[in-house]
Amino acid sequence: MSNPTQTPAPAPLEPPTSWREAIPYLGPGFVLSAAIVGSGELIATTALGAEAGFTALWVILLSCVIKVALQLQFGRHAILTGETVMESFNKIPGPAAAGVSWPIWLWLAAQPLKVLQVGGIIGSLALLMNMVLPSLPVWIWCWGFAILVAVLVATNRYTTIERVALSLLGGFTALTLASVVSLQWTEYAISAADILSGLTFQLPAHTLLVVFGAFGLTGVGGDEVMQYPYWMLEKGYAAHAGARAADDPDWRRRARGWIRVMYADALLSMAAYTLVTAAFYLLGAAVLHAQGLTPEGTGVIRTLAEMYTNSLGAWAEGVFLFGAFTVLFSTLFSALAVWTRIFADAFSQLGWCDFRDTRSRRRAIVVLSWVFPLAWATVFLIYDAPVMMIVLGGVATSALLLLVVFAAIVFRRSENVAAIRPGRLYDTAFAISCTSIALFALFGLSRALGIL
Length: 452
Description:
Blueprint: H1 19-22, H2 28-52, H3 57-66, H4 68-81, H5 85-89, E1 96-97, E2 100-101, H6 102-109, H7 111-132, H8 138-154, H9 158-182, H10 192-197, H11 208-217, H12 222-235, H13 237-241, H14 249-291, H15 300-312, H16 316-349, H17 358-383, H18 386-414, H19 424-448
Antiparallel strand pairs: 1-2
């Protein structure tokens, strides 16, 4: 594997100048979508819809749209500097220990809850397969998926697997949208009044923890914002721009061009996952809430299947199980692929490896490819509560948004090349995004910790 963060590349590449030319360079945002849909959309979003009904629809839509400005800022910083996230974090002013700046230590402190979250995903996969083949117990499926995903990531077969997963994800998305439309011919039909009731900015008090977790998990959460630059760097956006040379008009032109490509990638993927997220939420609110059903415990997959069987008929259960498997496995695979990279980067700042060195980075990725899945499987078999594990991971993700907001502001203030600075519209959206996310995260944390 070549060094994806190497800047400059052997030769800078001129950015595409039309939509048709830009299409082959899109992708990092859609790779994130594969990770987002599994824990956020399929499970946390429908769980919120089941508990809150239509009233929290505004939270779901806001969570998808409001955070993209942070994603764009992290992406801009990666293109303009060629740095990885942890390299940039390590340059943020403030306290440091062992030569490592405080943002990295804070990020590391939140990771135990993130282990719970992905443990909930691998556990949901095991429960799903146990429904299909009950002759094999859940623990065998759990360890089996841990080993399978470890082998796939350790052998660096990401590109092929992810293309297949994204294709299958598209099919499941179509099924979900068809289910929402089909509800209109059932007793669970969604009315305009239902939709409007979800846009009144009200929340039932008993749903606040799930709301907070769902806000962190839907759309791009703190994790996804930090992960996006890794896929951008591997796609070559920063390398194509060439080595930073603020006085070079050619570099400034290329940097602006690749930033435009990044904007298109992020905004198109946002439109896609917002549509899917809304569809999952509406199914949960219309079908599960009406029946008083909540996805929880080991029955989460069977409960979720009712959203499809009640709208499309009993035949849809098999299709749902196949689609759910695709979504969850794609999420698990994407999560492991990026966890190995971001942790290797963090450990590089600690001096345990060298992320810029191809052999050292590859060695770290292989080791972590085995450590994480085994840890995820272990925590699921201990706690055996996939929905709560995923929601708790969402709480940690929401908390990390505070760190991401701070870092994004630092990155924005560090942009000192006048010719590449964004316009007033961008800065306005960025300010609204940072303010809204910070207020929501602080409020949610205080409620989650029982302060209010």
